[in-house]
Design goal:
globular; mainly alpha; two-stranded antiparallel ribbon
Length: 490
């Protein structure tokens, strides 16, 4: 009798031998096979050489399924201690303590599927926030220039922007996203994590930023007939121009300097061993909230434009960090930390808004608008990062190119404003906003393809070559698993 070949190794298949085709040289007719074997025995009469194994390329779904199966093979189900144990049974855990079933790869966080979904939703939040910034700027331009033939459209948008600042909500979402993802880059395995963090941040931020500088100069200064001071370009190249008292070439650069301050605070906490300590993070957030209250009081009393938004935005970043530790990492004690920081922000924002923005100092300031903006941004981020996770390739891609969208949105809008000259009365505001968004996405896709992505890859190459990772035993015991660090952290 003939016996089919046994199972081959995973990823390989025999060539020209399985199934004993008639063309095979070892094919024996059934009558001869019955004579050659004794009754009751299954002996193969195949005398052909061993089959040739041909590698078969697995598709992506099969490969991911095999990887997750290997990861979850050693995960044991949750064991919950009952209130009363049978006689003679041994209590392995304290009564009433519920374990977290099927935790993440490092044994502490959410399940891998839930964690990756939330990280993808964070990318989606970044993409939507970048588009919201474009929408806010185009609406502001449309209301300022009386754009479009529909007075009702302008009236509705004017009433809406009086109490809701969509652009500020989007920027606050960006700050919360930074707190949610960026500090965990410091926990990557590496011999010198601080230097690796600095290298990764440099290659992530500066190349696209430097490209936006000449574009902004051409569109926002040369075409507009504005003078270019001698120190404008050198100061803006450093991304520290506001600390030097120099104007931003593109107004949105002010948020990048807050990002740099946050990076410095994260490095300081990391050096002190407090970046993953709930008490240290809570004290940092409370100190920033107190600083925002102090600057707001000085602004109210002295009637000077103190930078109240800087410490308040940094506090929102640390709030995002607490949210990550509690929701995704499931660390003990971080639920209390999140409650304390959330309560402090919710209570402090009305006081800061009234003191700092109760008087209009030239920016159409309205304390109620700032109050609604910060509260709405925090609620929206908590909703989109926990319960209403937005997924999809389009949203993930928008998140990947969101930095370029953010940088080049004002440049593209300036070009379209020049092209719109003479047609302002016939183009509705929302049509102009849609055209600006589409053109910006197209430009951002090119910048990401030819500038951002190669720069990020170069940064990773520099880190791998000059800052090799340490062994697994040398990693911080409290650091998140490397596999749980998503693309947003890079």
């Amino acid at each position: 009798m003939h016996r089919r070949p046994g199972p081959m190794r995973r990823g390989f298949m025999p060539r020209g031998h399985a199934g004993f085709p008639k063309s095979c040289s070892c094919h024996v007719p059934p009558r001869q096979a019955s004579r050659a074997t004794s009754p009751g025995k299954r002996v193969s009469t195949c005398r052909s050489p061993a089959p040739v194994l041909v590698p078969v390329r697995e598709d992506r779904s099969a490969r991911n399924a095999r990887r997750w199966s290997a990861i979850l093979r050693d995960v044991e189900p949750c064991q919950v201690a009952p209130r009363r144990l049978p006689r003679g049974a041994k209590n392995l855990v304290e009564p009433g303590v519920t374990c977290n079933p099927c935790r993440a790869l490092d044994g502490r966080g959410a399940t891998p599927t839930v964690a990756m979904r939330r990280l993808h939703s964070i990318d989606s939040i970044r993409g939507l926030a970048a588009l919201a910034v474009i929408y806010a700027h185009t609406v502001e331009f449309g209301l300022k220039t009386q754009l479009g033939p529909f007075p009702l459209e302008r009236a509705v948008l004017s009433g809406l922007t009086e109490y809701v600042d969509v652009g500020k909500i989007a920027v606050t979402l960006f700050f919360a996203v930074s707190g949610f993802v960026v500090p965990f880059s410091l926990f990557k395995a590496g011999d010198r994590p601080i230097l690796a963090f600095a290298v990764s941040r440099f290659f992530r931020l500066y190349p696209a930023y430097w490209l936006s500088i000449p574009c902004g100069l051409l569109v926002l200064f040369v075409w507009a007939g504005r003078d270019i001071p001698a120190v404008l370009v050198p100061a803006n190249i450093t991304m520290l121009q506001q600390f030097l008292g120099v104007e931003n070439i593109i107004a949105l650069y002010w948020t990048l300097q807050i990002e740099l301050i946050f990076y410095g605070l994260c490095v300081g906490l990391f050096v002190l061993g407090r970046l993953d300590d709930a008490v240290g993070v809570v004290l940092s957030a409370l100190a920033l909230i107190a600083a925002a209250l102090g600057l707001a009081a000085l602004r109210f009393g002295l009637e000077r434009k103190f930078p109240v938004a800087v410490p308040l935005s940094l506090a929102v970043m640390f709030w995002g960090l607490c949210l990550r530790y509690h929701v995704l990492e499931r660390r003990p004690g971080w639920g209390v930390a999140l409650t304390v920081v959330t309560g402090a922000l919710v209570c402090a924002i009305p006081l800061v808004s009234v003191l700092a923005y109760g008087r209009d100092m030239g920016f159409h300031e309205n304390w109620l608008k700032y109050l609604v903006t910060y509260w709405a941004a925090m609620a929206l981020f908590a909703l989109l990062s926990q319960w209403l996770c937005i997924e999809g390739r389009l949203f993930t891609y928008l998140g990947a190119i969101s930095y370029s969208i953010y940088l080049f949105g004002p440049v593209v809008q300036g070009v379209l404003e020049h092209a719109l000259a003479g047609y302002a009365s016939v183009v509705p505001i929302h049509l102009f906003a849609a055209a600006t968004a589409l053109a910006t996405v197209a430009v951002a896709a090119l910048v990401y393809r030819w500038i951002e992505a190669p720069a990020i890859a170069l940064g990773r190459h520099v880190i791998r070559r000059h800052l090799p990772p340490v062994s697994g035993a040398g990693r911080d015991a409290h650091a998140p698993a490397a596999s749980m660090v998503g693309r947003s952290e890079i």
